Amino acid sequence: MPKLLDSFxxxxxxxxxxxxxxxxxxxxxxxxxxxxxLAIGLLFFxxxxxxxxxxxxxxxxxxxxxLTVLACTFALFPILGLLLKPVLTPLVTPELYLxxxxxxxxxxxxxxxxxxxxMAQGNVPAAICSATASNLLGxxxxxxxxxxxxxxxxxxxxxxxxxxxxVYQLLLPFIAGxxxxxxxxxxxxxxxxxxxxxxxxxxxxxxxxxxxxxxIGGLWRQTPPAALAGLLLVNVILLGLLLGLTTLAGxxxxxxxxDQITILFCGSKKSLASGVPMAKVLFAGHAIGAIVxxxxxxxxxxxxxxxxxxxxxxxxxxxxxxMQEKSPLA
Length: 330
Known about the structure:
Layout: H1 7-21, H2 26-50, H3 53-60, H4 63-83, H5 85-88, H6 94-104, H7 111-119, H8 124-150, H9 159-190, H10 193-216, H11 225-252, H12 257-267, H13 272-282, H14 289-326
Helix pairs in contact: 1-10, 1-14, 2-9, 2-10, 3-8, 4-8, 4-11, 4-12, 6-14, 7-8, 7-10, 7-12, 7-14, 8-9, 8-12, 10-14, 11-12, 11-14, 13-14
């Protein structure tokens, strides 16, 4: 049975504790953000160099998986946020529920979805396509859903900038890795184990920088303890439901194990990196603390839970591989 607290989970908990006690700010925060961006760029470059052209084309053409992920992100999440209102509103303030509803209509994460899919040995090419498509489409879908479900307020002034950030930070390194594969592909294939450290290192950097910003922004001061406890419970309920429903959808729709893992990690998460800049534009002139607080907490919870799940999937696959090697029929 896999251990609940392995070395990476302990590292994740230590990173959260460090960010809570010693959050980075000012020049240090800028330096960490730069290092994080470089680590993410390296991650996508190595994934590009690792994946064959055939695997990438297969990921792009996996339209059933992509539609499933998008349906979970932009349809199932908002529907649950609306249907659960009678249950959620007694636990949080009306302002915080507005933030929960905003959380439900955001796109999926990109780097952590792909990193967790890679750690769990899921369909990485499909994860890259699904997560990137979610963020690109979210630039247009999220403002429309905000105007329809949350408030009558528009504006997507940062949309093009967000799209260009995705292209610069994720797609270009991946394409560069694909181009460089002809020269470094064999070396990368011989050192695939190093991708695990790049995956985990990029996640730890994202956790530290994101949690530092949340703590400096008054994460623990903006709500009373009772409302904060209620918000934590609301986020756990939402994440638990989505993890269960995405798992069920992957099985019922006949996807294989690798695709089920991709649907689980890409369809159940929400992007802090996209959500906070969008909130500043979509709710311009309003105090956005209560609106982004549910997202900040959800982001940390999803990273912790998905890290545990990814490690368990990896350990299960390794155990199955060892058992198959020992089998006399293998």
